[in-house]
Amino acid sequence: MKGVIKNMKSWWLLLFRVWQREFYLITHDGGVMLFFLFLPLLYPILYTLIYNKELVEEVPFVVIDDCRTLKSRAIVQMADATPQMQLVGYASDMAEARHWLNDKACYGIMHIPGDYSQRLVNGAQAVVPFYYDMSLLMRYRSFMEALTDIQIAIGDQERQGLLNDKGEVASGLNVSVIDSQAFILGDVTQGFASFVIPGVLILIIQQSMILGIVMLCGTSRDRRRQNKGIDTLAIKAPIGATILGKMLCYVVIYTPLTIYMLHFVPLMFGLPHVGNLVDIMLFVVPFLTASAFMGMVLQWFVSERETSFLVIVFTSAIFLFLSGLTWPRYAMEIPWRQLSALIPATWGVEGFVNINTNSATLSHVSTPYIALWLLTATYFVVAYLIWKRDRGYDN
Questions:
Q1: Rounded to a whole number, what is the distance in angstroms from the first to the last CA of the chain?
Q2: Which is the most buried residue in 91, 118, 166, 348, by most CB within 10 A?
Q3: Which helix (H) or strand (E) segment is 131 a member of?
Q4: Could you report the per-residue pLDDT of 324-378, keeping only the tens digit for each?
Q5: Backbone angles phi, psi at 88, to 5 degrees
Q6: What kind and span of H or E run contains 114?
Q7: Is 57 helix (H, G, I), strand (E, B) or coil?
């Protein structure tokens, strides 16, 4: 019994020594400190400042007015009065308008046909073609929002006028068949920063941690090559103590950084932030541990310090696309959806956005929460097997 207790004390002491040595290596490595500290501190500010305008407004457009009546001028004035659109001029024909579009003097062309006013007067449907530059979906969205509102407003006005002419409806009565009301949940401003930044913060945490971990591994392998296969700065300890000690070191370092990124950054920039901080931090624990163990698994692909940059460049775009930020996961093909489930940031984005933006509790995000713990266990086992094969340690 005494021997078991002594072995347990020795194991925990070695774990602490691994944690202590890993902290020393991190704080004395400028490259690792850059990714463990400065990247999480500066990137959220940089990204949020870039996207903090939230909405694309005053998108320039030109008009081809073949009708030239009060009604045609009215629709142009309504479009120019919206916050999303800005009239930059009239074109005589489509060729001239296309020239403006090709020169990026405008991003949309409104073509009012010659029979526009007559069709409205006769109660017929009038068609006003609008041509978009689809090089940026945010501009397309701005145009669509403005034109939809204009279409509804003009339809109500014309229907009101026709009924008044027949004496069937009193002037000023709202004759819309359906009164549409929108209640925006989560991203109240419908802004791009409020939509994308919460998810990007999770990706920054994962990627910066993985980059630092694989860089530490590359440096360790450089030392081993210089010392006949021995890392002179490593603590000889059981694999389990080594892996857990390193993981605890990374989690301790990233805990205050995570509070800064997920709590204070949204507060500073007025981003959606209605979740409970306790729920957020409880959810983040398995995300940090899963990311740490995943970084230890990815170390297998790193042969030298510089290789870490190749790993992170290769994985960053993949992790972003599979996270569900750019395309919903339920719309992905099954193989891609299964691959995305192996990435901690995928579940981290889903759970954090729901807590932070939609005021969900930990019980509401039980699926991603459980998935992160499963990933933690899976990557721990894989990292253990890789370290045992690669380093030849005794357990």
A1: 20
A2: 348
A3: strand 130-132
A4: 887 888 888 889 889 999 999 999 999 998 898 888 889 899 999 999 999 999 9
A5: -110, -5
A6: none
A7: coil
